Amino acid sequence: FLLELPHYYHNQNTEAPDVVFAQRLPALTEQLVVTGPQDKLDEKYIVQAEALLAHVINPDYRQAVINNIGKSGGAGKTLKYVLLLRSEKLPQPDEVIGEFIKHLVPNKKAPSPEELTASLRLIKPDRQRLILFALMDSDRLPKDQSVTLAKAVGAQIGLAGLEAPKREPEN
User: Fold this and answer.
1) How is 4-28 classified by DSSP, letter by letter?
2) Is the pLDDT of residue 107 over 80?
3) For the chain, N or C: smaller number of CB within 10 Å?
4) pTM
């Protein structure tokens, strides 16, 4: 990673930015953080990845690196959403949170609260609350299951005051 960036900046006239920031750096970042496809993410590695991404000068290029992480799915895709949700400026928060919910709750099968808690602990508390509200409003699970799951996760991470947001009744 640290070799690719100076090489790009010294050869900007001949290097295409999309090759570096959309192909090379996302794969390197994912390899640095994801230890195995089914392993849980480690915050220590995520902080190191964020420090590396801070070396990318252009915010659009930094965003391109993050957007191209996790193409194979699994922990890599979780890493992509965690990095997006940890960033200072979150482009299109509703869309990102909705995609994260789809990733966390696949095929209308409720994951265990522990699985969700592990991923949500890596995100800022104010965004954790938004994600849990989105989970409550999501149609990925029946209303009662989604509210119960969100409240259980909220209790595990120490978020209080998770009143169920209004959602259209199921027909």
Assistant:
1) HHHHHHHTTTTS-HHHIIIIIHHHH
2) no
3) C
4) 0.85
